[in-house]
Amino acid sequence: MANNENEFRKIFLDSAKSVKSIHIVDIPDDAKRIVAIHPECANLIAEKAYDLGLLRKGKYLGIELKNESRNLTWNISELKPHQKRNLLHAVKCGGHGFVLVRFKKALSVRDRKRLNTKKFAIDIAFACDIVKLTSCKLTSFSIEYMLENFQVLELNEFTKKYDLEILWKISPKK
């Protein structure tokens, strides 16, 4: 799964870098590495807020990337409390918070029947507004639910880049 997470991050960053008017604030995983080497410093290092920040035309977006490669359902428990808190804080400060959930997996016969497709694999990402996501009473989100309730991030198969324009067009739910 780690390879899919790194691949998703790379595709997303490449997509953001291809738009000249986006400023990227990449939030590295250095805190985890430091704590692994020096566990005695754990209480001195703040947790990573979320994966990325994007700034465009004065609008800030906090982004957390999640990858699901085992199931056709994503569980909100994969979003850590500090990630949720920080994404909601970005919204409170006038920005926007998104959890981008990517489903990339081979489809079994049962999966293909469930999704009514002849494809043998899927690779689809959703932009989930943090306010809408956390105000929902569900804890698990099926791919079918996400198709109906969240925005699909379109991936250009030729350039292997997501169309990120949609992130600035989604109106935050208040």
Question: Outline of this structure?
Answer:
The protein has 7 helices and 10 strands. It has helices at 2-17, 30-37, 81-92, 109-115, 130-135, 143-149, 165-169; strands at 23-26, 52-56, 59-68, 73-75, 96-106, 121-129, 140-142, 151-153, 155-156, 161-162.
Layout of SSEs?
Blueprint: H1 2-17, E1 23-26, H2 30-37, E2 52-56, E3 59-68, E4 73-75, H3 81-92, E5 96-106, H4 109-115, E6 121-129, H5 130-135, E7 140-142, H6 143-149, E8 151-153, E9 155-156, E10 161-162, H7 165-169
Parallel strand pairs: 3-5
Antiparallel strand pairs: 1-2, 2-3, 4-7, 5-6, 6-8, 9-10
Describe this structure in words.
With 174 residues, the chain is of the alpha+beta class. The protein has 7 helices and 10 strands. A 6-stranded mixed sheet has the order 1-2-3-5-6-8. Strands 4-7 form a two-stranded antiparallel sheet. A two-stranded antiparallel sheet has the order 9-10. The longest helix is centred in the first third of the chain and has 16 residues, at 2-17. The chain is globular and about 50 Å long.
Helix tally equals: 7
| Apparent shape | globular
Helix content: 25-40%
SSE succession: HEHEEEHEHEHEHEEEH
Mean pLDDT across all amino acids: 85
How do the strands line up in the largest sheet? 1-2-3-5-6-8
Which percent range describes the beta-strand content?
Answer: 25-35%
Strand-pairing-aware structural class: alpha+beta
Task: Note poorly predicted spans.
Answer: none
- Compute the number of strand runs: 10
Termini separation: 34 Å
Biggest pleated sheet = 6 strands, mixed
Cα-atom Rg, whole angstroms?
17 Å
